[in-house]
Specification:
Length: 313
Amino acid sequence: MDDCRAAKERMEYVLGSAQLMKTDRPTIHAWLCASLHMGKDFTECEHDTNEAAPRAQFNPLAAFEQENGLPNFIPKNLIEEHTFSIECAAEEPDTKQFKLTNGCLLVEVPVFMHPPMEFGDHIIGINDEHVEDRIHFHRLIRFLAAQKKHQRIRFTVQRVISSVPISKSRLTVPKELISKQHCDYFKNTMIFYPRSSLGTNIKSVNGKVYVMTTDNGFNSIARRAFYIGDALLSVNDTPCTSTKQASKLLLDALKTKGIKDLMAVQARVIVERPVNPAAIAIVKAVLYMKTANVMDPKMPDDVVAICKFVENV
């Protein structure tokens, strides 16, 4: 590469000098001849550089639009099939109330269909008829609405499994992040769909991150992944100890540009969820606690009493 750079600089110098010294043809001719032996090497180096140029970066949102159904970067073992029978009034549903991606993924449905329909569901069948694409889907809906009668319509969808229970013994997070109370643990998979939003608010107390609120909007991916009071122990195997760190891990994992690996469009989050009264009481106290300058906050007396009672039972 140094030879290439030197050759390029020499050629620029020669050409620049040629413009300044138009009357000194013999000198210019000598400079050009002296540089010709490096011309081939310079061309080859430039060619090699082009061959080594990086490939176009993977864009997951483009994959959602270009591929029919859920993109191939989503592991097959995380996809399950559901069939829902939904009661519809005469002339319902209206095709205008549906919005789908080119890959036939739901991004908007009529209010009365949610639940059971969820954001990001891949429609694969209506009343036992296979749905080929978005145009075919709208054609089937218009046909059913044209019947002008009360009916039950069966929708078959493919859906990404958002939460899988795991045992406490399989956790790979630091022990200080694990509660001593009775809690359940889950491995949640969050996928960034087209037109989706993260939709969550978190806080940290004593080096542990908790979910304060979740957006209940249809396009919120946190709504299906978290409950209020959940503790976020790790994101993609990296422990979470502060709101700043947890936010960065989630946003980096769900980013949509500059993707180089499959993990970059899905966040695998280990969640701790309180179960027994003592654990729930502690989490409630944490949620209502002001976090400004709190290093080791005092638990309310009633919470301490409940914990002592549970320990003695």
